[in-house]
TrEMBL record:
It catalyses: ATP + protein L-histidine = ADP + protein N-phospho-L-histidine. This is histidine kinase. Keywords: Kinase, Phosphoprotein, Transferase, Two-component regulatory system. Pfam families: HAMP, HisKA. One of its GO terms (cellular component) is plasma membrane. Residues 146-198 form the HAMP domain. InterPro entries: HAMP_dom (IPR003660), HisK_dim/P_dom (IPR003661), HisK_dim/P_sf (IPR036097), TCS_sensor_his_kinase (IPR050428). It is an enzyme of class 2 (transferase).
Length: 287
């Protein structure tokens, strides 16, 4: 905004100086002074425009500057930032110095105090915006970090509780963000693990029950044979009976291993298609 305003003012200063020099190059200096007086009293930018005409000797002929700004021949035609006395009041100005064919010098410019004020205002606004943005970034980063740490700590606490043996623990779920979806996935995994653990316990209990009865029976028969029938024939019968019971236990173990391998997918190559319709028909015929 400030740059656009500066370029606009520079273009206007050059245009006015070019018009005055071109129009009054072959006319008396008095015509130029009357035009400058008209420019200063027409009510258009009268509070900011600067005009000054000096003679070849440096005497002020017309304009609203109390004295001519210091300048040399190398600055002719260039836009300058200088300090001037406009109507006896010090101010900053942006002006151009042009040589007149009549031998004098023409100064055309604008008071840049307002422009500088706008620039200062924009600069202060940018500094305030930068400071506010920095505060928001730092505050936002801190709040975001606290939120992330809070959600991660919930997951860690749940993991520690499960590690300690409490499989009933679950991660609290709130909202619908990535952490909530992660918590849903982890909770589903924990549910599945708990189901598998319960299944293992049930299988373990079933195995223990299925093994205790035949083992107790084998022990009882062997003990009875030793106590009441300690003959060679009796011991042989007891041994054969024990072998039959142990073979039964081995069969149970093999079936359990087959079930475990089937559930884990290790024996899928031995699977075969089954005619379910025939099985249903046999069940109907049986019952």
């Amino acid at each position: 905004t400030v740059g656009v305003l500066s370029r606009s003012i520079d273009s206007k200063i050059r245009a006015i100086s070019d018009r005055l020099v071109t129009t009054y190059a072959d006319r008396p200096i008095a015509d130029l002074t009357r035009e400058i007086a008209r420019e200063l009293t027409d009510g258009i930018d009268s509070d900011t425009e600067i005009f000054l005409v000096t003679s070849a000797s440096g005497q002020i002929i017309a304009g609203n500057l109390s004295q001519a700004p210091a300048q040399d021949r190398t600055t002719l035609g260039q836009l300058l930032n200088v300090e001037v006395l406009r109507n006896g009041i010090p101010s900053s100005a942006r002006l151009i110095v042009r040589a007149l064919p009549q031998g004098g010098t023409l100064y055309v410019g604008r008071d840049s105090s307002e422009q500088r004020s706008i620039g200062e205002l924009v600069r202060h606004a940018l500094e305030a915006a930068l400071a506010l943005a920095l505060v928001l970034v730092v505050t936002g980063g801190y709040v975001f970090r606290q939120l992330v740490e809070s959600r991660i700590n919930q997951i860690r606490r749940t993991a520690h509780a499960i590690e300690a043996g409490d499989l009933n623990q679950r991660i609290p779920v709130s909202g619908d963000d990535e952490f909530a979806r992660l918590a849903h996935d982890v909770n589903r995994m924990l549910d599945r693990i708990e189901q598998l653990m319960n299944g293992v316990r049930q299988v373990s209990n079933a195995i223990a029950h299925d093994l205790r009865t035949p083992l107790t029976r084998v022990r009882t028969r062997l003990d009875a044979s030793l106590r009441h029938n300690a003959t060679a024939a009796g011991l042989s019968d007891a041994a054969r009976t024990a072998i039959d019971e142990i073979d039964g236990l081995i069969t149970v173990f093999n079936k359990l291993l087959q079930i475990a391998e089937a559930e884990s997918g290790l024996r899928t190559e031995t699977f075969a298609e089954v005619d379910c319709g025939r099985i249903i028909q046999n069940m109907v015929d049986l019952y």
